[in-house]
């Protein structure tokens, strides 16, 4: 996919985080400060694990980086955001892919284990609700209907239970596992902090398994990151979400301009601060920030404004540690991304 390198000025709201878009000039100025190491002298192993949503981006960067630096081996796992943070907080990995900011308990474990980290946003995603291609009746769902389907104790067992004029076709739900940041994000939007999500779902940390599940079940319904939908448009149908302003489908434009609400969100990588001082890890992260925006678009996600990517590079080069999405009391911080992430 190609993308326009010049960003207009507009407001973007993503799960409570709003940004103002500028041009790529700021990032170009910052990235030019990074000096590329000699390919022949760079060697080592970089261990990455975490979000299946972020995986396509990191894997694409790893492949490109491997061609430029063939003596560096980059391994990328998929254990879910929560699973990735468990390994990361135990110093088992150098980088953790995450489809949500780190939580207070995860940050505390990392602190207990003396694992300092650098937080880097790398893209925007639109969590996409999908149905089987043979589903001719459901083109959109309201937020209330989504809650009716997914809240624990739901009486919805067939599509007719959602809308009376829909067929009495059994509903089969495919969802990310509880270690997934996608599950956490979906739960926060749909159920909030007090309620729970129904447990009678087929779950997997591998989004490709979810794709195949919905594809093979006429009454199937699932959700995952937009890239997996964009990659499988020929196999699945996206459902437009009506949060009160009419049905909106996830597209690069609606995710970028914030109209695909409330299922748009930022994606992250977290870098172990000690690992960041190793030449191969330093080179990889700087390569990620320099080439990631283009690869983000190519794999189906939405790139960040250049000013945010430039800020992320500066924070990395200055080794700014900790999360900016928790306050001093460990409470979640909400607000404009340009204000939250400094």
Mean of pLDDT: 88
H and E string:
EEHEHEHEHEEEHEHEHEHEEEHEHHHH
CATH architecture call of the largest domain: 3-Layer(aba) Sandwich
Percent range of helical residues: 25-40%
Distance between the termini: 30 Å
CATH superfamily of the largest domain: Periplasmic binding protein-like II
Low-pLDDT windows of residues? 1-30
- The top level CATH class name of the largest domain: Alpha Beta
- If you consult CATH, what is the topology of the largest domain? D-Maltodextrin-Binding Protein, domain 2
Strand order of the largest sheet: 4-3-5-15-6
Q: What structural class results from the helix and strand content? A: alpha/beta
Write down the Rg.
20 Å
Question: What number of domains?
Answer: 2
Strand content: 15-25%
How many strands, what sense, and barrel or not for the largest sheet?
Answer: 5 strands, mixed
């Amino acid at each position: 996919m190609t993308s326009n390198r010049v960003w207009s000025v507009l407001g973007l709201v993503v799960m409570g985080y709003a940004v103002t878009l500028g041009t790529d000039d700021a990032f170009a100025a910052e990235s030019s400060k990074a000096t590329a190491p000699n390919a022949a002298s760079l060697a080592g192993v970089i261990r990455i694990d975490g979000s299946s949503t972020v995986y396509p981006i990191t894997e694409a960067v790893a492949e490109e980086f491997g061609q430029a630096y063939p003596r560096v081996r980059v391994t990328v796992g998929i254990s879910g955001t929560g699973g990735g943070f468990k390994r990361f907080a135990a110093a088992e990995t150098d980088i953790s892919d995450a489809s949500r900011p780190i939580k207070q308990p995860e940050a505390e474990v990392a602190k207990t284990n003396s694992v300092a980290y650098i937080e880097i946003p790398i893209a925007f995603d639109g969590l996409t609700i999908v149905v089987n291609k043979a589903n001719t009746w459901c083109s959109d769902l309201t937020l209330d209907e989504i809650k009716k389907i997914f809240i624990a104790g739901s009486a919805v067992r067939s599509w007719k239970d959602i809308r009376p004029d829909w067929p009495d076709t059994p509903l089969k739900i495919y969802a990310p596992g509880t270690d997934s940041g996608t599950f956490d994000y979906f739960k926060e939007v749909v159920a909030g902090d007090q309620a729970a999500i129904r447990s009678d779902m087929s779950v997997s940390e591998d989004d490709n398994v979810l794709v195949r599940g919905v594809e093979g079940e006429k009454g199937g319904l699932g959700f995952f990151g937009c890239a997996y939908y964009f990659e499988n448009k020929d196999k699945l149908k996206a459902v437009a979400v009506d949060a009160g302003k009419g049905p909106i489908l996830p597209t690069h434009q609606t995710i970028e301009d914030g109209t695909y609400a409330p299922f748009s969100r930022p994606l992250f990588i977290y870098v172990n601060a000690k690992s960041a001082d190793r030449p191969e890890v330093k080179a990889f992260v700087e390569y990620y920030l320099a080439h990631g925006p283009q690869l983000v678009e190519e794999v189906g996600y939405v790139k960040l404004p250049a000013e945010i990517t430039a800020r992320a590079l500066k924070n990395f080069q200055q080794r700014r540690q900790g999360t900016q999405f928790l306050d001093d009391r460990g409470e979640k911080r909400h607000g404009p991304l340009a204000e939250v992430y400094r």
